[in-house]
Amino acid sequence: MLRRKRKALVMYYTKTGHTADAAEAIARGLESSRVEATVKSIFDVDRGELADYSMVALGSPTRGGRPARKVKKFMKGLDKKALRKKTATTFTSYARINGRGTLRRLKKLLKRRKAKKVVRGVKFKAGAPLSLWQGKDIKEEDIVRLEELGKKLAKKGR
């Protein structure tokens, strides 16, 4: 009997590119665990396509200790059961204010859309405070942590 290939969607919002880089790292971790990973900006996600995935990862930069408004608006625009039976995780970049609050709020957004299990997310420092300037890149050890998050999501999403 053939098993269907497991699929994951890694969604993110970014202004300077750091959150997009993190999404790619998570996708590499998923792919190394034999999960087909698709990486998309939230602006490119068709709400109907969420049904095609068994796992999702949601990423946002930290803005004032919270997720970006555009991420919250995107999630609130989803059907109340859009993530039903899906395993999910979160990730955030921050420059000054620690991303712990952002991870907590992203998890709440996923739970409100009925994600069955939310794997503990990853926060990483990158960028520059209060600026559109790209600032510091993601550290190599944070890239490794993000790839491990992808592997953990793949393991929990069985």
Short description:
It is built from four helices and six strands; from the N terminus they run βαβββαβαβα.
Biggest sheet character: 6 strands, mixed
Class by alpha and beta content: alpha/beta
Mean pLDDT: 91
How far apart are the first and last residues' alpha carbons, in Å?
Answer: 17 Å
Total of helices? 4
Radius of gyration: 14 Å
Oligomeric state as shown: single chain
CATH structural fold name: Rossmann fold
Element order: H for helix, E for strand: EHEEEHEHEH
Helix fraction bin: 25-40%
Q: Tell me which CATH architecture applies here.
A: 3-Layer(aba) Sandwich
Q: How many strand elements? A: 6
Fraction in beta strands: 25-35%
The dominant shape is globular
Give the CATH superfamily: Flavodoxin domain
What topology emerges from the helices and strands here?
Layout: E1 7-12, H1 18-32, E2 36-41, E3 55-63, E4 66-67, H2 69-76, E5 87-94, H3 100-112, E6 117-125, H4 140-156
Parallel strand pairs: 1-2, 1-3, 3-5, 5-6
Antiparallel strand pairs: 3-4
Explained architecture:
This protein is an alpha/beta fold and 158 residues long. The protein has one domain (7-156): Rossmann fold (3-Layer(aba) Sandwich). It is built from 4 helices and 6 strands, in the order E-H-E-E-E-H-E-H-E-H. Helix 1 crosses helix 4.
